[in-house]
């Protein structure tokens, strides 16, 4: 036994609980300190009496203090599990949230397995959504876009490490992205400037969080660009704030989308909203009378 051994695993976890740390956060930080896989919580039960050596205790103490100061667990460990993938993350990108998996699940419903669909992920950050879709639909052609070169570097490194052929493009939304797509997905900034919740998110990049006075500026821009970049019958899916489903639905309908609907997250909050670009639309003649059906792929 190492002569410098100090506290046991169980003692450290009790310490974290007494300080108000969430149980799952403490477990992940302990696994990180012990150089164990972050999903291996069963190991903690089998080794709760193990004594930590000095290096492990030091790693635990540092991680505990960083978390108590509000730093996301993912930044402390440098890793985050998302939809079955282990992503490398740091302060250049948002910490991927479990609720964003709702966006992935909806997208997978719209992507037939084995078909080469073209998918665009806007504001990819760590690449979480794009990589999850590429992993689940190998035949898809997934393009990941971000306006931040730093964020795109994280996404690209994750794609290379996971051996997933996602194309990463530096662009402000769709400005520098060629082609058309069957599906556009995005978890864009949607927090209103001045929102009091921003005080709890000081460790994460502000430009990836806020979007104008009502939080909808970027969503408006995406919806405005989407019709020209979607194939007929294509879908756009957007993650948004807890109280934004109704205005996002309205924006989609105003832009000509149909089948507009929202999906609820793990907390039963409407978290994602989407709509389909119709394959055909009503087109009025030059006289403004006698409406006729005009297919989107025909000249208007």
Overview of this protein structure:
It is a single chain. The chain is α/β, with parallel strands linked by helices and 300 residues long. Helix 1 runs antiparallel to helix 2, helix 2 packs antiparallel against helix 4 and helix 6 runs parallel beside helix 7. The chain has ten helices and eleven strands. It folds into two domains: 61 residues, no CATH class; 190 residues, Vaccinia Virus protein VP39 (Rossmann fold, 3-Layer(aba) Sandwich), CATH 3.40.50. The protein has a seven-stranded mixed β-sheet with strand order 5-4-3-6-7-9-8, sandwiched between helices. A two-stranded antiparallel sheet has the order 1-2. A two-stranded antiparallel ribbon has the order 10-11. A hairpin with a 5-residue loop joins strand 8 and strand 9.
Brief rundown of the structure:
The chain is of the alpha/beta class. The chain has helices at residues 9-18, 23-33, 41-46, 54-68, 73-77, 101-110, 128-136, 149-162, 217-229, 245-254, and strands at 79-82, 85-88, 118-122, 141-146, 167-170, 181-186, 230-239, 258-264, 270-276, 280-283, 292-295.
